[in-house]
Amino acid sequence: MSGVVDRRGQRDRRSPPAVVAHCACERGVRELLAGLEEEGVPVRLTDGDPGSAATAVELAHAAARESPLDVGVGIDAEGRVCVHHAKRPADRPVVTTDTARARWCGHNAARLVVGLPLKDAPERMEEPWPHH
Amino acid sequence: MRRRSSWTSGSGWPTPVEAVTLLAGVDIGNSTTEACLAELGPDGPRYLGGALAPTSGVKGTAENVPGVVKVVQEALSAAGRGPHELSAVLVNEATPVISGLAMETITETVITESTMIGHNPDTPAGAGLGTGTTVAFAELGACTPGEQVICVVGAGVDFEDAAAGIAAARDRGVEVTGAIACADDANLIVNRLPAPIPVVDEVTLVEKVPLGMPAAVEVAEPGRTVRTLSNSYGIATLFDLDPDQTRLVAPVARALVGNRSAVVVRTPSGDIADRRIPAGTLTLIGEHARLSVGIDAGAEEIMATLRRVAPLADATGEAGSHVGGMLATVRDAMAETLSDTAGEQEVRIQDVLAVDTFVPQRVTGALAGEFALENAVALAAMVRTSRAPMEVLAEQLRSALGVAVLVGGVEADMAVLGALTTPGTERPLAVLDLGGGSTDAALATGDGEVRSVHLAGAGDLVTKLIDSELGLDNREVAEDIKKNPLAKAESFFHVRMEDGTARFFDEPLPSEAFARVVVLGEEGMRPVPTRHSLEKVRQVRRSAKHKVFVVNALRALERVAPGGNLREIGFVVVLGGSALDFEIPDMIAEAVAGAGIVCGTGNVRGREGPRNAVATGLVDDHAGRAR
């Protein structure tokens, strides 16, 4: 059985399957995580470096490349939110929006993993977005 | 229905000269105009090529001129010839055909009091069955310990507050056995409860859920469907119903079959009716008999009545019904087309085709935008006239092209002649022309006699059935589904075709297409806006084609076959736009295989496929006369 490499010892060091989120600000994070949780997909939250000038698209693409599931989310300091897939070109994310729709981003990041069509954007849903 | 070719022309035939003459045969069809360019020499015609363009205006009217000019010029430039070289244009006797389609829904599920929620949210939570009285989330604190309740969480309640409120009520001894939520929150709420309860979410009209009423919430395990609420006796057991009441809830149970989650709320005045709508009657007038049939009797009964009155002389629909309106519209459109000609003709419906179908209709009074599949009958009708205003068309064409224009040749005869240029065919030969508005057939027996028939219902009806059965409300998408195989986008870089093969793309697919059913059309990929599975869309597409084309092919061949016996037909050549379809010719070949007929898609002149038959037939016929 030469050539077979036993990687069992490395298992602990590997990250468990999860969507990775790089967030440079607090806004929208709770809603983002709620969207992923509702769809039943695990997520690993890392602090992007706060105050970094990286855009949401850059953060999301870096997160997607770190994610064992190839899906990442980025929230930049200005409150832009982006969902990205590691196999897509860096400048062509799946969705980009702002933190008002962080929940929707969470749902869609999860749906990329489980293979469900993306949810309709909130304003196109029949239910009017609650105004509180 | 015996017809001989007859040629009429104001200018007479050009005398055959020893030099070759350049001729263009032009077939004006319902949707496309085709041209065939040929050089006529002493050894017969030498074909130089063809062209096709959309027909301008209604077939057989002067509006066709721009379309004809376009194809003739295209055919000439493709062959590298100039317009001055052309000696004559041959046009078939195109008789206007106008077809109409209508749909009548014959059942309806009406819930006058909100009594059920039967939608399929992507993520309901918990599993099992909860029963109790419906209570608004804000009133949960007022419930007494021991009470069995279903909590209704309205819009704007945060999932953490909802979970905390339900947990607190349970701590006090209130038995919260299930919940109904407005937002997409079910798992978020259940994950925060000490013990899971079934929660149905995404109920958009949650404020309409009647409060203080006995209710049941059921969520099935992933991969399963509800068992109790989709069973009439299950509902009867839960709510202690008598036989009469059980009869009333049976439509609710039926509407919930196949759902992963469901809610039934028992309201005292709940009145669920599964009733048949009076859909009007259709009166079929034959040459010897006149019979009326209710549209709600279904397609089979309508077609049986049609056979009893055959041959059909005319048909009328009850005023005020969709069918009555459609038949009147078709008649009016034809009358208008003919109005510019001197001849006052009576416009009569020549054929109808009824097809059973179903339409997803919003359940009146339901709480989450539920749809119920209702039975419907689709009806196609067509009128055709024997005389067409061809002289006007020929005159205008003559001045537009500056060459002699010869009108002549019965369309069916020309189609047969063109079809006979398909390699491997001989008389007796039947052509089956599958068009957009009508399905036509013609049979040429060994002695040159041609019998033809024109039936209502063709490609447009298939599109309509696909559109309505899938609830698309988008003709363009339905047309795409009809014409192309389906696929499912499985990743950003590959799709799985309906036959299981994978296809990869270099460019990432748009995110709207992800995990969706898509059609791969000529203009690229288009996502199908539906939640139906690929299998379901495929089944609807194939059954629509079967219900229209296979039924009509058999109907048409039986009408032209000697004694109605298909075995007397040797060869069937399938022509027309729908013969280019990727599965219709195979379906027809399969259906007639039992009669020992050679059936296949035509290949006019061995190279044009099922196109250009009439145009080629015109040239062929003319060449035969010239020699």
Structure report:
The complex is a heterodimer of chains A (132) and B (627). In chain A, helix 1 links the parallel strand 1 and strand 2. In chain A, 27% of the residues lie in helices and 19% in strands. Chain A is built from three helices and five strands; from the N terminus they run E-H-E-H-E-E-E-H. The C terminus of chain A is likely disordered. Chain B is an alpha+beta fold and 627 residues long. In chain B, the strands form seven sheets. Chain B has a seven-stranded mixed sheet. Chains A and B meet through helix 1 and helix 3 of A and helix 3 of B. Chain A: InterPro entries: B12-dep_deHydtase_bsu, Dehydtase/Dehydtase_re. Chain A: It holds the Pfam family Dehydratase_MU. Chain A: This is Dehydratase medium subunit.
Distance between the termini of chain A: 65 Å
Helix content of chain A: 25-40%
What is the CATH C-level name of the largest domain in chain B? Alpha Beta
Low-confidence stretches of chain A: 124-132
InterPro entries (chain A): B12-dep_deHydtase_bsu, Dehydtase/Dehydtase_re
Protein name (chain A): Dehydratase medium subunit
Pfam family, one (chain A): Dehydratase_MU
Q: Key terms for this structure?
A:
heterodimer, A: 132 residues, alpha/beta, five-stranded mixed sheet, 3 helices, globular, disordered C terminus, B: 627 residues, alpha+beta, 4 domains, seven-stranded mixed sheet, 31 strands, 28% helix, 31% strand, elongated, disordered N terminus
